[in-house]
Amino acid sequence: MNNLLADAARRASRYLESLNDRAVAPEQQAVAELARFDQTFPEHTSSAETVLAELDEFGSPATMASAGGRFFGFVTGGALRASVAASWLATTWDQNGGLVVTSPTNAALECVSLRWMKDIFHLPERSAGGFVTCATAANFSALAAARHALLARAGWDVESNGLFGAPPLTVVVGDEVHASVQKALSLVGFGRDRVVRVPVDAQGRMRLDAFPDVDDRTIVCLQAGNVNSGAFDPIPEICMRAHLDGAWVHIDGAFGMWAAAAPARAHLARGVEDADSWATDAHKWLNVPYDSGLVFTRNADSLRRAMSVGGAYLAQEEDRVPYQYTPDFSRRGRGIEVWAALRELGRSGLADLIERTCRYAGRFAEGLRAGGYRVLNDVVLNQVLVSFGSTERTREVIARVQRDGTCWCGGTVWQGHTAMRISVSSWATTEQDVQRSLAAILNVASR
Ligand SMILES: *Cc1c(COP(=O)(O)O)cnc(C)c1O
Question: Is the pTM of this model over 0.70?
Fold first, then answer.
């Protein structure tokens, strides 16, 4: 193993060193070469060294350079140095993170990092959390907890009896609800479209004046950080209204919740702690390797009961048992990388990461406006939406930016307008990366 792991380390270092000089999107030729993997199932055993060499030779060149500093597509974090190294070590340990007995280390690190994150987000001390694959899974888990709590209150045991014949629940979402919440709604049996949609304002925020009457059988899904504009719903106001009538408030804060960590942006996340459940990602703005999401609920019991196994509810043991808070049973020890990222950054490093990436987003917006292009959103966070004119022209510029390879940005449709979206979410992005990328975008757009 010694030589093999050293070889993997050498290859990984070489890969990281190459990121600054290569095109961000893989070359077409490299993607075509992936056909080399398309062999029949081998009759015979190969050495691990051969397998690794083949993976590196044909796999590495066909990757998207999203670990580097100039990938601005979707909302994509890089991977902090300590979390990459921790992930390697943890993979070597090969722990089953579902139980305390199968991984005391993961269980301990989940507890510590949950405590730290509750502090960062100002969540109640007694709230519970679970380590899931992504924000979609976190939204799903939180909605399952909400479903449990509201139906239990109505005298219905949904874990045993399912939804057939259950008292109906109402779900309220904003018109700008993220597709992952809709998917989660379909998974928990509420239906994607069986929702009350609240109109939004020009930044995609739920309009308070259009908020409907709710009751104690209503789940309100709010957003902390719109995937396009970065805007936050009026969270404290809606929480207050919804709670007066006994509704459950869930917050999809896949990246936006982390604004709470930066003093200059924390006002955006004001009142987030008033909700009943929360979904966020570690693989976005915290810059932990994929896959890593987090669910939190104010009432620990609702999440534990929703995730209970085989209908039987295991009383809370002395120790927090990781699988009692997630859909998975056996799983990798995600707490290890999350802990490593938080441990490396500390409060000041996390604040700096959030603030710096927001500042870079502002820099992009200024540069694009100065170039004569229209920025479609108020750049309050790390997201920038820019139009280069007509739909066709904007699409053409996006395609050319991607082909140019200096950086990578994706397209989106914002309130009827086609736009290029720039999301600055990686710890690896430097001032120089922003200048180089901005110059490349302006150059491509001017041609
Ligand atoms: C990215 C995102 C999601 C989904 O996150 P995954 O980790 O990809 O499942 C949900 N909501 C918002 C607001 C997002 O930005």
Answer: yes
